[in-house]
Amino acid sequence: MAVCEVCFRHCELKEGQTGFCGARICAGGKVTAANYGRVTALALDPIEKKPLRRFMPGSYILSVGSYGCNLRCPFCQNHEISWSRQAMRFADTAELIMPDKLAAAAKRYRSRGNVGVAFTYNEPLIGYEYVRDTAKLVREAGMVNVLVSNGTAELAVLDEILPYIDAMNIDLKGFTDLYYTEVLGGDRAMVMRFIERAVQFCHVELTTLIIPGENDTEEEMREMCKWIAGLRGIVPGTEIPLHISRFFPRFHMTDRGATDVAKVYRLAEVAREKLSYVYTGNC
User: Fold this and answer.
1) CATH assignment of 35-281, given 3.40.50.2000, 2.60.40.10, 3.20.20.70, 3.40.50.10230?
2) CA distances from 23 to 40, 68, 88, 187 (A)
3) Tens digits of per-residue pLDDT, 150-191?
4) Distance (Å, rounded) from C-alpha 276 to C-alpha 86?
5) For 105-125, what is the HEC assignment?
6) Residues in Cβ contact with 174 at an 8 Å cutoff, skipping those fewer than 6 apart
7) Domain residue spans in the chain?
8) Cis peptide upstream of residue 51 (ω within 30 degrees of 0)
């Protein structure tokens, strides 16, 4: 029996058993990343698609994803590789791209405007070892590393990758414990601690997807932005951009319509009461 120390779940795994995320396994008495180097998605994206609006705008970045996730968001747009048990099939069928090969690919795409590698699509930190090993080589090549994460990881895991990460977009999916626990299967306090540490070491932008009837009140937005604005006290002068995105019915959450555009714009106005950089998406 071994305990996974990546997130709040602390899965206790028997030999050969896979954790809740579907990507960490007990092998030889240790918990390791079964998805190490297993790539399910690879694309050259505009950096604004991560989304990052105040980090190297106008550039492109080689985006890579694997499989598995430690949350269970019912609206997940990448559920084929993240949420569903079908993601497990990638354990054997995903293309194997080791860190040196991915770093070399990033360099080859320089001529097309590529500035580095973004770890995204599924939750990268359940395979943090691959992020760490690849990001180190990318940094040595003079390129940048971006992490797109739900922030559901222990600080010890974050510290493993921070020396090599230049920018992050972190999902702050809402600002109530009830929403995080009952809807997402997550831990809001863990995400907040993750963000507090990350802003001390790299550029950070946050994203909130507005779900009708779940996290769409002005009161919740004010509370969240008050906390975000307070991060200036950790790193004086730091302004954290916030992306407020529109929800569309998908996957297991088709019981409600898309978020009203006017609602997204109004919540953005509320956010601007405290924050300097607020962007709307999917409108």
Assistant:
1) 3.20.20.70
2) 13, 5, 8, 19
3) 999 999 999 999 999 999 999 999 999 999 999 999 999 999
4) 41
5) HHHHHHHHCEEEEEECCCCHH
6) 180, 183, 184, 188, 208, 211, 214, 215, 220, 224
7) 35-281
8) yes
Tokens 């993750």, located at residue:
194
The whole model's pTM is what? Answer: 0.97
Q: Are strands 24-27 and 30-33 parallel, antiparallel or unpaired?
A: antiparallel
Alpha helices for the chain (secondary structure H): 90-93, 99-108, 128-140, 155-161, 177-178, 188-198, 218-230, 261-271
Alpha-carbon distance of 210 to 192, in angstroms, equals: 18
Sign of the four-CA dihedral 244, 250, 256, 257: positive
* pLDDT, tens digit, 9 for 90 and up, residues 35-87: 999 999 999 999 999 999 999 999 999 999 999 999 999 999 999 998 767 67
Task: Determine phi and psi for 242, rounding to 5 degrees.
Answer: -125, 130
For residue range 16-35, list pLDDT tens digits in order: 999 999 999 999 999 999 99
Q: Are the beta carbons of 247 and 258 closer than 8 angstroms?
A: yes
Identify the helix (H) or strand (E) that includes residue 244: strand 242-246
What percentage of the chain's residues is helix, strand, coil (to nearest 5)? 35, 25, 40
CA 188 – CA 176 distance, rounded (Å): 7
Question: Which amino acid, residue 77?
Answer: Q
